[in-house]
Amino acid sequence: MTMYSHILLSLQFSTADDAVAAKAQTICQQHAARLSLIHVLDNIPMPDTAYGTAITLEQPKDDPLLAAEKAKLLTWGKRLGVANENLWLIWGIPNQEITRIAKQENIDLIIVGSHERHGLGWLLGSTADGVLHHAPCDVLAVRLAED
């Protein structure tokens, strides 16, 4: 059985996160692994930033949309007992940023939620599919119930 020491949980900030986080917590406990969280911002405008696409949690919260996203990530971190240095808030294409952080941080397992795709969504793919095909490590795609 593979032992995991560092697990990256991708959060969507949706109701589905509860189920995915529960799986991540169980696996972390089974392997005594460290947990990191990532949320990729792909749905709000990117304000000017001199530091690239990674958003520091200490950066001023001038933008109300960005402040709300930071608050959600910090809340999840507190809820799951994850230290701030293991929280990632990044602008970009979700599958690319998730796999980039996984490589950078020597992640052993990425956990993402996966919805069944139909029509145009099936043709264009999903974050879970993109992560699965480009990850440097194991990927657990947690099947999510349709809303």
Task: Sum up the structure in keywords.
Rossmann fold; alpha/beta; 39% helix; 147 residues; 6-stranded mixed β-sheet; 5 helices
Question: Would you summarize the structure shown here?
Answer:
The protein has 147 residues and is α/β, with parallel strands linked by helices.
What does it look like?
- The protein is α/β, with parallel strands linked by helices.
- The protein has one domain (6-143): Rossmann fold.
- Helices cover 39% and strands 22% of the residues.
- The chain contains five helices and six strands, in the order βαββαβαβααβ.
- A six-stranded mixed sheet has the order 3-4-2-1-5-6, sandwiched between helices.
- Strand 1, helix 1 and strand 2 (34-41) form a beta-alpha-beta unit.
The name of the CATH superfamily reads: HUPs
Please report the first level of CATH classification, the CATH class: Alpha Beta
From the 3D coordinates, which CATH architecture would you assign?
A: 3-Layer(aba) Sandwich
Task: Quickly count the domains.
Answer: 1
Number of strands: 6
Topology order in helix (H) and strand (E) letters: EHEEHEHEHHE
Hey, roughly how much beta strand do the residues contain?
15-25%
- Head-to-tail CA distance between termini: 34 Å
Number of helices: 5
Computed structural class:
alpha/beta
Arithmetic mean of pLDDT: 81
**Residue runs with pLDDT of under 50 for 5 or more positions:** 118-125
CATH topology: Rossmann fold
Biggest sheet strand line-up: 3-4-2-1-5-6
Biggest beta sheet summary: 6 strands, mixed
Oligomer kind: single chain
